[in-house]
Amino acid sequence: MELIEFISNSPSDTIDIGDQIGRFSRIGDLFLLSGELGSGKTQLVKGLARGIGVPDWEYVVSPSFTLMNIYEGRLTLCHLDLYRLEDADAGEGLEIEEFLETGIVAIEWAERRTWWKGSVPVVIDSLDEERRIIRMEVDDVSRAEIWRNFSCKS
Predict the structure, then answer these.
(1) Statement: residue 116 has pLDDT above 70
(2) Closest CA to 146 of 4, 49, 1
(3) What is the C-alpha R_g of the chain?
(4) What's the whole-model pTM score?
(5) Superfamily assignment of 2-153 in CATH?
(6) How far apart are CA 152 and CA 141, in angstroms?
(7) What string of H, E and C letters represents the secondary structure of the chain?
(8) Terminal alpha carbon distance of the chain
(9) Average pLDDT, the chain
């Protein structure tokens, strides 16, 4: 397991970091996002959408009430938010495996349930009003190296 850290100094930095993660994403990537309310999870997903070529990435919003939003780019992005679900029901019956066959999945409040090996946990912690530290745990060493090289530049 490789730990990669990014520092974001603003919401636009968080989008840029998500963009770079998205550029090197591939079919089957499952990003498990956790962090406090307002930490930047949705901003990171906007960046993922931009990175995979979603034309209207600026309009990516948290699916807190709809539970799931789907966006099309070079890959399909399935964006889920488990915030409003009870812990016992979190993510049951969503069949995200189907989305992983054609694209990537990003789940906000993913800590509400247990996921499978190979998922990419992403934790966003607030350092102050604007700054964030974004930590990713990546199993694939070669992909971790790509993302690590980007993290050194952010």
Answers:
(1) no
(2) 4
(3) 14
(4) 0.89
(5) P-loop containing nucleotide triphosphate hydrolases (3.40.50.300)
(6) 16
(7) CEEEEEEECCHHHHHHHHHHHHHCCCCCCEEEEEECCCCCHHHHHHHHHHHCCCCCHHHCCCCCCCCEEEEECCCEEEEEECCCCCHHHCCCCCCHHHHHCCEEEEEECHHHCCCCCCCEEEEEEECCCCCEEEEEEECCHHHHHHHHHHHHHC
(8) 21
(9) 86
AA identity, residue 150:
F
Residue 74 has pLDDT above 70, yes or no: yes
CA distance 22 to 44: 10
What is the β-pairing status of strands 76-81 and 68-72? Answer: antiparallel
Residue 42 to residues 12, 93, 131, Cα–Cα distance (Å): 12, 23, 15
Q: Which sequence spans correspond to the domains of the chain?
A: 2-153
Token readout for 107 is 């789940």
